[in-house]
Design a protein that fits this description.
Length: 82
């Protein structure tokens, strides 16, 4: 189940709120890069992979559909991209 903070972030990102997007990025970027590095064994490739995910979220916020866990959703995105 989504926390109130996660619901707020998702709703705000859907509305184009850059500060909410920045908060999402600052909260999850480093951890997602670490996960990506463990999968692709390259820091640069992992950073590119994670950056691409965040670009897609910013450019197409309507595709950000999360029902359980925002962190889990982002982890799945990294695993699927890697």
């Amino acid at each position: 189940m989504l926390s109130e903070t996660e619901k707020y972030l998702i709703e705000s990102i859907h509305k184009g709120d850059y500060r909410a997007f920045e908060m999402l990025f600052q909260t999850y970027y480093a951890g997602l890069c670490a996960l990506g590095r463990s999968m692709v064994h390259s820091e640069e490739t992992a950073e590119d992979l994670v950056s691409d995910i965040f670009v897609k979220i910013w450019e197409h916020p309507e595709n950000l559909f999360v029902t359980q866990s925002l962190k889990g959703y982002l982890i799945r995105c990294v695993r699927n991209a890697g």
